[in-house]
Write a structure and sequence with these properties.
- The structure is a homodimer.
- Chain A is of the alpha+beta class.
- The first copy, chain A, folds into two domains: 102 residues, Phosphorylase Kinase, domain 1; 299 residues, Alpha-Beta Complex (Aminoglycoside 3'-phosphotransferase, Chain: A, domain 2).
- Chain A contains 15 helices and twelve strands.
- In chain A, strand 6 and strand 7 form a beta hairpin.
- The longest helix of chain A has 35 residues.
- The termini of chain A are far apart.
- Chains A, B: It comes from Taklimakanibacter albus.
- Chains A, B: Its EC number is 2.7.1.100.
- Chains A, B: This is S-methyl-5-thioribose kinase.
- Chains A, B: Keywords: Kinase, Transferase.
Chain lengths: 420, 420
Amino acid sequence: MSTAYRALNDGTLPGVLSELPNVRDFLGGAAETWTVEEVGDGNLNLVFIVKGPQGAVVVKQALPYVRLVGDSWPLPLERSYYEHMALSEQARHAPRLVPKIHHYDRDLALIVMEYLTPHVIMRKGLIRGVEYPLFAGHIAEFMAQTLFNTSALAVPAAVHKQRIAAFAGNTELCKITEDLVFTDPYRVAKLNRWTTPYLDDIAAQFRRDEPLKIKVQERKLQFLTSAEAMIHGDLHTGSVMLTPQDTRVIDPEFAFVGPMGFDVGAVIGNLLIAYYAQAGHEERFGQRNPYRHWILLQTENVWRLFSRRFLELWDKSRSGDAYMPELFTEPEGAVAFAAEKQRFMRKLLTDTISFAGIKMIRRILGLAHTEDLESIKDPALRARCERKALTMARRMVLDADRFTGMNEVAHAARAVLGVN
Amino acid sequence: MSTAYRALNDGTLPGVLSELPNVRDFLGGAAETWTVEEVGDGNLNLVFIVKGPQGAVVVKQALPYVRLVGDSWPLPLERSYYEHMALSEQARHAPRLVPKIHHYDRDLALIVMEYLTPHVIMRKGLIRGVEYPLFAGHIAEFMAQTLFNTSALAVPAAVHKQRIAAFAGNTELCKITEDLVFTDPYRVAKLNRWTTPYLDDIAAQFRRDEPLKIKVQERKLQFLTSAEAMIHGDLHTGSVMLTPQDTRVIDPEFAFVGPMGFDVGAVIGNLLIAYYAQAGHEERFGQRNPYRHWILLQTENVWRLFSRRFLELWDKSRSGDAYMPELFTEPEGAVAFAAEKQRFMRKLLTDTISFAGIKMIRRILGLAHTEDLESIKDPALRARCERKALTMARRMVLDADRFTGMNEVAHAARAVLGVN
């Protein structure tokens, strides 16, 4: 840990910010007049909202341990360095879809960034049943821009390798994913939890489900070795802040160069969790049916808009070292290349579906759960939602390569919902 | 370039070596009595044999340009750093299959290593028709040990990522492969050459062969993004020095963390080049038939022994982060895990066959050819050999996933040989 590091609080933060001319000017007035509120409800960090007479900022500071667990689980402050690097890279490709950065302090592991208002965490909106008509297009744009443009399809090999190396040190954050997503839900692990006793049977079944475990380990190996693009690494609906008009992706501290499908799968998997959680949030049976329908439609829209945008970017690109366009200038070459792009997207769809299923399982049988389900007070009702989500997730992992489109996933999700 | 660097010659090398106590003692006597011979016949470096009254060493020094082309093609001296790092790592896993290192000087880009005698470059032995009964076992052992033990199957994720980062800077050597192996043979490129006019037609065909080019580009993307294990990166029969009893792998300056099948494919592809070159080296038609048979048998032996050893290492391993053994302790789990290992090896076989075919093509239509074929004086005869090799190679790239074993590859190779 840097010797300059100290965890800040509402008393000490204004003094630090007042030393930063651009932040001071942005907030306006004297530091003594600023209000500070600690609002971090995530698993890892301190998050402050600081308001001055002219403006407001958010300050995110890493803690040297996992906030969710306590100081028995140390975690490097350097994750803030990777988060800042990822935010900066994302801003180059999708500037309107990430918060602006006012300041970064490596010693304090602290990022001062745009205060987003009246944005809410998307997960909370999904619980309340709010429709976000622009979300699918925005998140599709974010993923297409950040994944395509940081891949070897878009940049020379040397640039790609430089990026791989730049993020290779973010191992401890990756290890959280490796352990909590790909490993612990499939073994007896102290940190696992689930809605007991209702799900004891299915939790035990999953730990003995050899075909499922094999598929998950195959995906873990892919997560460890497939350096496709800079991924956000934790792109669930709690990492999205939005209004009906505006969408921002936050918190890329898990970023590294990994498989693209992990990000797209995170979005799809978390939409499906919201879908299965609706029974816990409706006042009468079926009240949320239109909203359920809307959510499922978003899974299809996200994939459709993402893959269309990704292919548009690929079609326009001339700078990548893989599939150099000059190799395919003949009419037959253009046809073959177009077919290859479709094959590429089909494989990415398969990856996406599998990673989505894996992310759903870990949110129900592993350490970190989601508010969509956790906020359902009645454990029997919650467990019914969770069991359906698990059933769907298992199918997605085992049969990922049998789905030929996201519409088939939505169809299967609907069928599982109907089964009791 | 380091300011301390200077290309050495037989006049200046003894002075440098005499400053190294262990090398001086190993050679014995006074520096003035040492003989120095420059023997480099490779494409990139200076290679000296230095002999003293008590011992001899080989000194390999990188030049700041590609020796084959001249100083118009600069190349970083740092490749010597990666070569030394790879040699050291290989020595940890296969100590008897690489030359011992006496000294490494980063400033001079110079490695002093074991003088191997009476070893010959394997390619020269294959041209003369020499059988090496232990080669298949040795190269299989080398590949299994180095590939398995530097993969995420064998080491924790953090160690794997550290290795990825450690080699990520070796981009310019990787770029040689990316350009000369995966790109140039499929486009009009100044550096391409082939046995003209005999192969003008097939060279043009390959440049227009859209399905072939697509497959090769798919493999190029894999080469750019698949960080499976530390690979040698240039494992052809010119990188093997051997006697009937002893085998050593040299020259890993192209090493980086890439797809395992690229190394195994290099061995298989170069054996097949030797196979098709035999017609150029026999005194009468069919004289080399037994030797042809021996070569093909080696392709099968290499794969069989490699995959057996790789699986043995995997079975014993407990330290990798992917497929942790504790997840598969039940009898059904062991069965499922064993089947998954077979699936893994089948995919590696496919990769191997495809990369082998790609390596064969580049040796006939690209810049760097092999002595197996180049030493055939009669261009018409050489072109007949090369055309068969190209025909086989194309099939291997296009149908890589249809071969279920290396015996089927050998069978196909034999069938192509019979066709005129």
